[in-house]
Amino acid sequence: MGIDLPHEPSAGRFYLAGRASSLSAQIVADVRDALFSKKLKPGDLIGTEKDLAARFGVSRIVARDALRTLEALGIAEIKMGKGGGARVARGNPRLFAEALAVQLDLTGVRASEVLDAQRAIECMAAELAAEHATPADHARLHRLLAESEASINDATAYTRLSREFHMAVTEASHNRVLVVQFISLTHVSWPSQNPTLTPAVSQRVLDVHRELAALIEMRDGAGARRLMDDHVKMIRARRVAERDQPDHFHAQPDCC
């Protein structure tokens, strides 16, 4: 039957007759709450459609809708057939980074909002990278620097490699929350084509990236944070001008 979930009145939830969608949402909320309160953990059996219908006193249609919603939210993995049923998913937050980016874009967030959040994330990531980066992380940063230098006259490749460098710094923090947030925000903020990128600008960016990699390798967290802060502020100035003020972005400094 799986893990018992709270659904008595004392738990604050009442399964009264009503719309099927509302009843389904109540089941989803109970499973989610049990997950957050550590009553459920990855791999635990939630149950079958029949189990949930009996446990919560609802129809199998309502239980089926709840299971589909739990699956869509990434909370449950469903196995069909004999011995099947829904289990708590193992979790892969990167799968939802793009979904969050889509929602941010649909909400109409401004480039300035995205870059302000990105600045906070990247500054913290740079500081943590200086504390936690491994030899493999350092090697990855050096490899990306070499590839960037070789692509300095190819704006498309250089733009991609710059994003990969920032991604590598964030991953070197070994903080999965920062990594997922960075992925989501760069879906919105990082251009696939950068028409204003010149070899001279690319060289200045490369110089900053080299200095940042060196600070991370020296374990200088405060220095890495300061440099990343200055770097992302310059990126913000250019991106905001390009996206929010397209007629005036040429007046911005050549930064990134």
Plain-language structure description:
With 256 residues, the chain is mainly alpha-helical. It has ten helices and three strands, in the order H-E-H-H-E-E-H-H-H-H-H-H-H. It has a three-stranded antiparallel β-sheet with strand order 1-3-2. A hairpin with a 5-residue loop joins strand 2 and strand 3. The longest helix has 24 residues. The chain starts with 19 loop residues before the first helix and ends in a 12-residue tail after the last helix.
Read across the widest sheet, the strand sequence of neighbours is 1-3-2
CATH topology of the largest domain: Four Helix Bundle (Hemerythrin (Met), subunit A)
Return the CATH class of the largest domain.
Mainly Alpha
Strand content is under 5%
Q: How many structural domains does the protein architecture include?
A: 2
Number of helices: 10
Q: Please identify which CATH superfamily of the largest domain we are dealing with.
A: GntR ligand-binding domain-like
Alpha-beta content class? mainly alpha
**Overall residue-averaged pLDDT value:** 85
- The second-level CATH architecture of the largest domain is Up-down Bundle
How many β-strand runs? 3
**For the report, how would you describe the main beta sheet?**
3 strands, antiparallel
Please estimate the helix content. Answer: 55-70%
Over the alpha carbons, how many angstroms does the gyration radius reach? 24 Å
Element-by-element helix/strand order:
HEHHEEHHHHHHH
Low-confidence stretches: 6-18, 248-255
Given the C-alpha coordinates, what overall shape results?
Answer: elongated
Quote the distance from N terminus to C terminus.
57 Å
